[in-house]
């Protein structure tokens, strides 16, 4: 097959779950098919276009810089976003040059399939009715959950307005696309119900088992680790919730339990919170997350906001590290609490599960082994890419 893949960004540096999912899917597909890749390229990050040959036969970078959060340009976008019909999370990646390029490529090349990767790429795909939309999240759900967890009336009003606009835009795009591919059966059903679309199927999340296999004995593992991009609102909210409401309960039983937060661009407010709590290390961007997983007793996913599926859970399982999560954190994954994972949806239960993992060697070994068996038997990237391939047809 000859595929045109249109994405908001290039895939390196690979710092986010959605990037990992796309990168590993495309690496597999490009071995069997001809992939043409269109993405927005930030001149400050030349690594992306430079490494595009790892997953595509041809790449077409379009220069575009989305304003950094907390910058004056981003503040201006926030203000203008109040009046725009396109939600800010999408408008940041709209590019007329990219849309013209896509139209030109479709006119002159004979593609078997066009993939719009992420909702944010939709404004740059003028032939959306011919494209398959690859939905890594139900974006509306994320914004609705942000409304529920807003810190004050002004923030809640802004999130509610963005949630409403996201719903209208996401529904329109899903109804226009030739087909929608979700990352879980739960997301697929949610889109059928919310947006009234029936051309929806789901492709599971995968993991690189060989890459995450532990390279040393974990006998000396200590404490708890969180892995995730710290410039993504659901991760920021989840970590703050854990430090403020869960960790104090853990420290009553495990006063010296170390916590490591691994992820790019942590906000200053998080560093201040960690300093107040004590015993918390924030790494910022790291070249390799695996040593932090292998060095921890357990991996935590205390999310209260989110959508799609969390690659960090399958990565922890592949690393033979047991996981404690909320229901939202593990949403869409075929896991059973008490078997593959422990799930707690309030501070007391989440803290109790963390203490169990820290104190009960037999429990954490059993959960880690069951988690590894699950991903090993069903979720290699080769298996996942073949499901995606079939979904395109």
Could you list some keywords that capture this structure?
about 400 residues; alpha/beta; Rossmann fold; 7-stranded parallel beta sheet; 6-stranded parallel beta sheet; 16 helices; globular
Q: Briefly, what is this?
A:
The protein has helices at 17-32, 47-50, 72-81, 88-91, 96-108, 139-148, 153-176, 185-195, 209-212, 233-253, 268-277, 290-294, 311-318, 347-359, 361-378, 381-392; strands at residues 2-9, 34-41, 58-63, 113-117, 131-135, 179-182, 200-202, 224-227, 259-262, 280-284, 298-301, 323-325, 342-343. With 393 residues, the protein is of the alpha/beta class. The mean pLDDT is 93.
Characterize the structure shown.
With 393 residues, this protein is an alpha/beta fold. The protein folds into two domains: 2-202, 3-Deoxy-D-manno-octulosonic-acid transferase, N-terminal domain (Rossmann fold, 3-Layer(aba) Sandwich); 209-378, Glycogen Phosphorylase B (Rossmann fold, 3-Layer(aba) Sandwich). Helix content is 47%, strand content 16%. It is built from 16 helices and 13 strands. It has helices at residues 17-32, 47-50, 72-81, 88-91, 96-108, 139-148, 153-176, 185-195, 209-212, 233-253, 268-277, 290-294, 311-318, 347-359, 361-378, 381-392; strands at 2-9, 34-41, 58-63, 113-117, 131-135, 179-182, 200-202, 224-227, 259-262, 280-284, 298-301, 323-325, 342-343. A seven-stranded parallel sheet has the order 3-2-1-4-5-6-7, sandwiched between helices. A six-stranded parallel sheet has the order 10-9-8-11-12-13, with helices on both faces. Helix 1 (17-32) crosses helix 16 (381-392). The protein is globular and about 65 Å long. The chain starts with a strand and ends with a helix. 47% of the residues are buried. The mean pLDDT is 93.
């Amino acid at each position: 097959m000859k595929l045109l893949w249109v994405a908001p960004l290039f895939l390196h540096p690979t710092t986010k779950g959605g990037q990992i999912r796309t990168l590993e899917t495309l690496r597999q597909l490009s071995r069997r098919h001809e992939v043409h890749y269109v993405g927005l390229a930030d001149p400050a990050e030349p690594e992306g276009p430079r490494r595009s040959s790892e997953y595509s036969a041809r790449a077409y970078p379009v220069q575009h810089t989305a304003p950094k959060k907390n910058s004056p340009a981003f503040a201006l976008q926030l203000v203008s976003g109040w009046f725009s019909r396109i939600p800010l999370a999408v408008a940041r990646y709209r590019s007329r040059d990219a849309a013209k390029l896509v139209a030109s490529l479709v006119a002159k090349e004979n593609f078997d399939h066009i993939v719009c990767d992420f909702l944010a790429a939709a404004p740059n795909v003028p032939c959306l009715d011919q494209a398959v939309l690859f939905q890594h999240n139900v974006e509306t759900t994320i914004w609705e959950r942000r409304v529920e967890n807003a810190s004050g009336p002004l923030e809640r009003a802004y999130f509610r307005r963005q949630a409403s606009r996201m719903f209208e835009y996401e529904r329109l795009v899903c109804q226009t696309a030739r087909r929608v591919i979700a990352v879980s059966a739960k997301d697929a059903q949610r889109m059928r119900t919310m947006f009234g679309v029936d051309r929806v199927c789901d492709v599971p999340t995968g993991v690189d088992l060989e890459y995450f296999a532990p390279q040393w004995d974990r006998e000396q593992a200590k404490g708890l680790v969180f892995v995730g991009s710290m410039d993504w609102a659901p991760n920021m909210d989840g970590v703050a919730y854990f430090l403020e409401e869960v960790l104090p309960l853990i420290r009553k039983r495990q006063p010296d339990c170390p916590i490591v937060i691994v992820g790019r661009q942590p906000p200053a407010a998080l560093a201040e919170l960690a300093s107040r709590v004590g015993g918390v290390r924030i790494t910022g961007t790291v070249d390799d997350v695996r040593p932090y997983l292998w060095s921890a007793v357990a991996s935590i996913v205390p999310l209260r906001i989110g959508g799609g599926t969390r690659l960090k859970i399958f990565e922890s399982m592949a690393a033979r590290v047991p996981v404690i999560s909320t229901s939202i954190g593990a949403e869409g994954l075929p896991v059973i609490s008490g078997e593959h994972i422990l799930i707690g949806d309030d501070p007391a239960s989440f803290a109790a599960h963390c203490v169990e993992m820290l104190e009960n060697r037999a429990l954490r070994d059993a959960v880690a082994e069951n988690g590894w068996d699950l991903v090993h038997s069903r979720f290699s990237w080769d298996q996942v890419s073949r499901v995606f391939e079939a979904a395109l047809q």
